[in-house]
Amino acid sequence: MRHDANLTTDRPTFVTHLECSMTGERYEADQLHGLSRAGRPLLVRYDLEGVKAALTPEALAQRPADLWRYRELLPVRQTTNIVSLGETATPIVPLEKETGNVWVKDEGRLPTGSFKARGLVMAVAMAKELGVTTIAMPTNGNAGAAAAAYAARAGIEAVIFCPADTPDINVREIAAQGARVYRVNGLIDDCGKIVGQSKDTRGWFDLSTLKEPYRIEGKKTMGLELAEQFGWELPDAIFYPTGGGTGLIGMWKAFDEMEALGWIGAKRPRMYAVQAEGCAPIVRAFEAGERHATRWEDAHTVAAGIRVPQAVGDFLILDAVRASGGKALAVSDAALVKAVDDAARKDGLLMCPEGGATLAAYRDALAGGLVDAEERVVLFNCATGLKYPLSDQSKYLDRHQPIDWGEL
Amino acid sequence: MRHDANLTTDRPTFVTHLECSMTGERYEADQLHGLSRAGRPLLVRYDLEGVKAALTPEALAQRPADLWRYRELLPVRQTTNIVSLGETATPIVPLEKETGNVWVKDEGRLPTGSFKARGLVMAVAMAKELGVTTIAMPTNGNAGAAAAAYAARAGIEAVIFCPADTPDINVREIAAQGARVYRVNGLIDDCGKIVGQSKDTRGWFDLSTLKEPYRIEGKKTMGLELAEQFGWELPDAIFYPTGGGTGLIGMWKAFDEMEALGWIGAKRPRMYAVQAEGCAPIVRAFEAGERHATRWEDAHTVAAGIRVPQAVGDFLILDAVRASGGKALAVSDAALVKAVDDAARKDGLLMCPEGGATLAAYRDALAGGLVDAEERVVLFNCATGLKYPLSDQSKYLDRHQPIDWGEL
């Protein structure tokens, strides 16, 4: 089969409607939507009986191994609206030097080097399908880079806002991919406010996390891929770095859809939402037994991707974590940096800080008895470690000095 | 099928022997080898009749989409010696805004962010299989990073030498992945001399380009993948950034092996070896009608990966280019930087400078009538653009200043 069969073969689509994730209120498909009237994320619903008749795991296995092989479970109607930079399935790489039975799902292999590609390729394709000409969004870096790349490809203008201290590499990547990018004196939710305040007067479509319905549909492919990679038996536990939480919510949605399709059973992984101690609103709400999380003031962590003081989908994250029997866990910057170091040095896998946070949390969970060494555990490394300064490696720097050949 | 079936399923192996690429002299398989007695690269030979009976394109399509699905055409005998960081097939991404019919094979998606992973995963697995405890090699950056990562995973010590002006990100990546790394006052062939002079006294196994026989076997999987992705009809032209040339030589070898297996016909792509004007020894030799290339003095180019003044496989590169009806082409730094800019801004694809060189060369070839717009052309982007400073994007920097929300 040719590599592009997923992108060029017209296939039946099964979206029936959208509904408010809080109230269940119904919304029409194939129209532009932001949040629901209740101010909450919208979820896309499918005719799963129709999907069941059209698609089997065996048929999936015959298709090229990219995200678009799940077309029947995705919202894009027209093949011509698919924008793609090659969203290949990401590998799960065992950490052989860690105690236990633990794989890293290495999302850094996606276009633009992060899992943000999954959500943004879907959101931009749907924006194209629904006639959007300019998108705008806040970002801690990686989402903006993915949005810029796909918007460039789709011929859509992109306006991106990031905190002033976003690493240069991210800002330059966004600009290189043709977007207008602004640094903002504030955090990501401050950036989001600018988008919210300006979008109507400026004609921007707001692509913020969970404020349009399709990023979550892209992110849910992480759950679909995992099931396929584990032979349709989900792992026992998933550690997920949690900022806006789209991926965790998306995977949880994918699990329900797969069960309805008969592809998996009722068993679910325990979902561990991992945050940094310097920005842990979901952990605080989890421990307090709350369904919503209040804003975390003075947020700080070296793991910029999870420096998200407030998440519009907070209750969806907390509901899933609780229903799964999992937990919300916070780790220190020191522990996550050490985890990044260890995985690189011992297992040759260069993770991002947020990925390192999941390894640190796994170690805590194993030590604390939350996880058994026999259980199958998946950690999400959400971006390539190459996007981050390796300042922690300075202990090697004395060996980097130019040497004379005679000296060796 | 589970994701790791390629890594865990024992399969028959078919290596019969090795032979000198210049003289054809025969060498035993399953022993450590460097260059041949004639000082030339060794090539691995297989019982292709045996492979033909054991493996079909249809069977391949059923396996997980990573490099190890070609096990029968690779040298590793024992499943337990496979080191892997998830060498997934790389996508071919169309450049929709370019004139013609042109795809980028995006090798930046491999572990450690470059195509060097293909060669080094194989070389390190074979080093493990043959009992090596320390490897050493020169690098312009990416090969060293891949070697370090796989060596860490295999429990083999790695000693890496790179030119003093190798970008920090590469040096730090190598160190983070547990290798000893030295900067050297010289170019990559100077680094290679250090390895050559010290390896016997220090007990290092030399992993330099083409100085051991297995990196080429890993690199040839680029050719196998391309054939599969194009439905077993090879593209009309391939533009390959040429430093040491292992990939070009490897693909050419793969094409011959696939023809012997009956998987493809006699048609070959025209191979275009792309170099930078500031370091073009292969281009000079091609134009002079020579079979060997003399060292290029005062080599300079922003594309460090092709800043290779002298290649031990020069005649193999030149033979393949000539046999294919292709050509060796040089491009200016200005042209390759512009190509990187354009692909990012218009097509959302951030290439490395060496990948940009192939796009610049393609544009020249199209304008000069070497390639028709109807032909199917593949450019090799050998590494993720994220490894390179985006200094050329400074025109956007005035937009990056912190702004007050009122200003917008």
From TrEMBL, chains A, B:
This is Threonine synthase. Pfam families: PALP. Gene3D superfamilies: 3.40.50.1100. Keywords: Amino-acid biosynthesis, Lyase, Pyridoxal phosphate, Threonine biosynthesis. Its cofactor is pyridoxal 5'-phosphate. It comes from the Bacteria. Its EC number is 4.2.3.1. PANTHER family: L-THREONINE DEHYDRATASE CATABOLIC TDCB, THREONINE DEHYDRATASE, MITOCHONDRIAL-RELATED. Belongs to the threonine synthase family. It catalyses: O-phospho-L-homoserine + H2O = L-threonine + phosphate. Residues 83-382 form the Tryptophan synthase beta chain-like PALP domain. SUPFAM superfamilies: Tryptophan synthase beta subunit-like PLP-dependent enzymes. One of its GO terms (biological process) is isoleucine biosynthetic process. One of its GO terms (molecular function) is pyridoxal phosphate binding. The modification N6-(pyridoxal phosphate)lysine is found at K116. Pathway: Amino-acid biosynthesis; L-threonine biosynthesis; L-threonine from L-aspartate: step 5/5.
